[in-house]
UniProtKB/TrEMBL annotation:
Domain 3-hydroxyisobutyrate dehydrogenase-like NAD-binding, first and last residues per copy: 168-287
Domain 6-phosphogluconate dehydrogenase NADP-binding: residue ranges: 4-165
Domain of life: Bacteria
Residue positions of the active site: 174
One record GO biological process: glyoxylate metabolic process
Protein name: 2-hydroxy-3-oxopropionate reductase
One Pfam family it belongs to: NAD_binding_2
Its EC number(s): 1.1.1.60
InterPro entries with a match to the protein in the record: 6-PGluconate_DH-like_C_sf, 6PGD_dom2, 6PGDH_NADP-bd, HIBADH-like_NADP-bd, HIBADH-related, NAD(P)-bd_dom_sf, Tartro_sem_red
Organism name: Streptomyces alkaliterrae
Amino acid sequence: TLPRIAWIGLGIMGSPMAENLIKAGYQVTGFTLEQDKLDRLAAAGGKAAGSIAEAVADADVVITMVPADPQVKAVILGEDGVIAHAGQGATIIDMSSITPQTSIAVAEAAAQAGKDLKVLDAPVSGGEAGAIEAVLSIMVGGEQADFDRVKPVFEALGKTIILCGPHGSGQTVKAANQLIVAVNIQACAEAVVFLEKSGVDLDAALDVLAGGLAGSTVLDRKKENFKKRDFKPGFRIDLHHKDMGIVTDAARSVGAALPVGAVVAQLVASLRAQGDGGLDHSALLRAVERLSGD
Ligand code: NAD
């Protein structure tokens, strides 16, 4: 029989991911802060719980997908959290993007709970579309045996699923992912403003660019956002700001220089300071437009 799943955090990513598990035949009990998201889970065939304790009570696997470190600490380590209420032998998989240190702290707290809990950090890349289509890249940190046991669960959510190393390693790889994505978006945004100011047909330009070495998943997925100035998230600037902080700190701690990443981190911070934190990260285009006098 399939493991019973508890899902905490049914936002832009969590909702479609939990629904993919339901489609794959899993029994999913969810908890999140918004009632409409709980209703959506129930309509999809899941069970809505009234608390974390209720959600995790009978679960073999508990998955968390919340915004950032403070929410992961509250949800997993808190008095009424996952570790306090999970059953003997449960596996806790945190798929949020957070600092490697917090993932390590979660693994240590779980080990000390005396319930034979297993922990994996398993952040994802691929965005809302990747979540909906179940083609996410899943970067995992933890022990091989725990990874092997829950691999079928990951396979219902993603396409590229790799154990990267011990606890926290998934988060380190995700930090690198966010660096690459931010710099790529920034380069595309600069190209779009340059092309438009030059009077070249943007559709033609982006189509031919996508077919050459300039092509990227970012260009494919964000092309329409750039063209239409449609900055509905997607992935919010606020969250990418968090991730640029994570990668900047992590890189400094190991002595890696991120000169271009540091500049893009400042542009993300500036967008946020101008009230654009709720927009999709493709709104880096706005920062370039402002710098270009538009
Ligand atoms: P979101 O804000 O849409 O969803 C977060 C959910 O967490 C909300 O439904 C909220 O109710 C829930 N939550 C927060 N605190 C909670 C608590 N104490 N108890 C229960 N539920 C709680 O965020 P998202 O875009 O789905 O992102 C979630 C994580 O995934 C973040 O770490 C983000 O960086 C990462 N991520 C997002 C994307 C993307 O494209 N949106 C892509 C890859 C990774």
